[in-house]
Write a structure and sequence with these properties.
globular
Length: about 70
């Protein structure tokens, strides 16, 4: 196993590049485990994918702006 200083999953740049994939993975896990009807708080998802707690809110606002612009 790699020493902690070589752990790529602790690198903020790597997390930033992989955040969509990590979020997708969490949703896939919930689907496979039949947990889609159980709500997941945005903070819980943020914690699981390694981003700040307001990330989901910011993404939602950004998507709304893009949709409203059309």
């Amino acid at each position: 196993m790699n020493p902690p200083e070589d752990d790529i999953t602790l690198d903020p740049e790597w997390i930033k590049e992989q955040v969509d994939r990590l979020a997708g993975w969490e949703y896939l896990n919930r689907y496979v485990k039949h947990q889609l009807k159980t709500p997941m708080r945005p903070q819980e998802l943020c914690d699981k994918i390694g981003v700040y707690k307001g990330y989901i809110h910011d993404i939602t606002k950004s998507a709304k702006k893009k949709i409203d612009a059309k």
